[in-house]
Design goal:
This protein has helices at about 5-10, 20-30, 60-70, 90-100, 115-120, 130-135; strands at about 15-20, 40-45, 75-80, 105-110, 125-130. By secondary structure, it is an alpha/beta fold. The longest helix has 14 residues, at about 90-100.
Length: about 140
């Protein structure tokens, strides 16, 4: 996200679920101006390690999470978009493991129109349903 996109996003959104690099964290912090943070920030994890998708690789999540906390950017949860497979439960279970190793209070944003039932069965707190609503 460029600087003006970050500023606009922070002015209209309740949160950002796509934190995936240090530069983005630093840009967000510049625009928060030490205000009391009431927005939710989620780390995006590339749980399937797919080259065409954004997100932090699973092994890098702990250090990125610590960076965010060190910079006083509160992390509310973790988000993923698993590979398009018949049963993504293994990926969702990996997200649970990562979350539990970081902080069991973090929310999980996982599950979209094609896999929301699996996500609900795997502790997802937030579903991102779109195509089922607008189909």
């Amino acid at each position: 996200m460029q600087s003006n996109k970050v500023k606009l996003s922070l002015s209209i959104a309740d949160g950002i679920q796509s934190l995936d690099r240090v530069k983005l964290v630093d840009e967000i912090l510049k625009h928060l101006n030490n205000q009391s943070v009431t927005k939710e920030f989620f780390i995006q994890i590339n749980i399937g390690k797919e080259i065409q998708k954004s997100g932090i690789l699973p092994d890098s999540v702990p250090s990125f999470y610590e960076y965010c906390l060190k910079k006083n950017l509160p992390i509310s949860g973790l988000m993923c978009i698993p590979p398009n497979v018949n049963d993504p439960s293994d990926y969702f279970n990996e997200m649970i493991r990562i979350r539990d190793n970081l902080n069991k209070k973090l929310k999980l944003s996982m599950g979209m129109s094609n896999d929301y039932n699996y996500a609900l069965n795997n502790q997802s707190n937030i579903l991102r349903i779109g195509s089922l609503i607008f189909a």
